[in-house]
Specification:
The protein is globular and about 70 Å long. It has two helices and 31 strands. The two termini are 41 Å apart. The protein folds into three domains: 109 residues; 104 residues, Lipocalin, CATH 2.40.128; 108 residues, Lipocalin. The chain is mainly beta.
């Protein structure tokens, strides 16, 4: 496969739309919408859009792209047309990449042309919610929100019950191979962590794929089975969101205390929910990806369990500070405040 760049004498190279560069440890991706715009993503942070430009470096037989996000800094990628192995599968990709970030990190990986979302009858481009298992010890009720996965352009992204995960996959007919998965490091109750460990281990390896309309079955050579149902991608007001993490006001996103369930629901200009002890209600407005939440009315119940009331205060303060919202490829709600710091993550608002 030839590198899809258009270069002319004395002019900059144009990176074709659909190119994606990616790497592991940590997992990351840089997807180009065209020669001047790209999105940089990590599994534990909000994706950042970059505006930039590319140019040819003929003596080095490579191309350079420089881009800046709205918040400042500069990312620089060097892309060379040489065969690349992602280290997680047998796939060979047509280009290598070296990526320098403004925080001093230097990453390396592979690039290829994204293949697109696939048909509605296939596995790709759809979000799948785990509905059942066979041959593994997994109590699906222990998840803080339903485990799910999305397959797109050789990357799998998902939610294991507590943490987000990502990795690489290859699909050849009805044969699926999934490499090792990288995950965020949030801690949840023991039963939830046990479920997540079982699911992510079971999801690594080779499988026979069976897709029938809105169901997906993955069968491993060992005989264990993962059964999924297609899940509708949620909107902010599509249902009740189960909180998986919130900002404690000390620059840390923490998971809810064991035996407490925090949830929030947005509908018709009113937001309501449960903060671990008390229920709350407020008004809100939305303008695209921006959100503003008004003063909150909270019930006055006192709970004596250790840390519950402090958690409630921290959670409500975090929610009140949210200024932007997004729903990622895994169907998880991700809210941030004005300075870009994450204030809340949640899942579960889908059919």
């Amino acid at each position: 496969m030839a590198l899809a760049l258009a270069c002319h004498a004395g002019a900059a190279c144009a990176i074709a739309p659909g190119w994606i560069c990616f790497g592991n440890e940590p997992s990351w991706s840089l997807q180009f919408r065209d020669a001047s715009r790209a999105t940089l993503a990590f599994p534990d942070a909000r994706p950042l859009d970059h505006d930039g430009a590319s140019r040819d470096l003929p003596p080095l037989r490579e191309w350079m792209w420089r881009g800046r996000p709205a918040g400042g800094g500069e990312a620089v990628a060097f892309i060379a047309e040489t065969a690349c192995s992602d280290g997680m599968s047998d796939a060979k990709h047509p280009a290598t990449v070296r990526l320098s970030l403004p925080d001093g990190r230097f990453l390396s990986g592979c690039c290829r042309i994204a293949t697109g979302a696939g048909s509605r009858g296939g596995i790709e481009g759809r979000r799948w919610r785990l509905a059942g298992t066979q041959g593994i010890e997994a109590d699906l009720r222990a998840a803080s929100a339903p485990a799910s996965a999305r397959f797109s352009d050789g990357r799998i992204d998902g939610f294991g019950g507590c943490n987000h995960f990502t990795g690489a996959y290859t699909l050849d007919g009805d044969r699926l191979a999934i490499g090792s998965l990288a995950a965020t490091m949030m801690a949840c109750p023991p039963a939830t962590m046990a479920l997540e460990t079982a699911v992510t281990r079971a999801l690594t390896g080779t499988f026979r794929v069976d897709v029938r309309e809105r169901t997906l079955t993955l069968t491993a050579p060992t005989g264990h089975v993962l059964a999924f149902e297609e899940a509708r991608d949620p909107a902010l007001d599509s249902g009740k969101w189960t909180v998986t993490g919130f900002n404690n006001g000390r620059q840390a996103v923490v998971s809810p205390l064991g035996k407490t369930k925090l949830w929030v629901q947005f509908a018709q200009g009113n937001v309501r929910g449960h903060a671990g002890c008390n229920t709350f209600r407020a008004t809100y407005t939305v303008d695209g990806s921006r959100v503003a939440i008004g003063a909150m009315a909270v019930t006055r119940k006192a709970c004596t369990a250790a840390g519950v009331m402090q958690q409630e205060r921290e959670f409500l303060a975090a929610l009140r500070s949210a200024t932007t919202w997004a729903i990622d490829a895994r169907g998880m709600l991700d809210m941030h405040r004005a300075d870009g710091e994450r204030v809340l993550t949640a899942g579960g608002a889908f059919e």
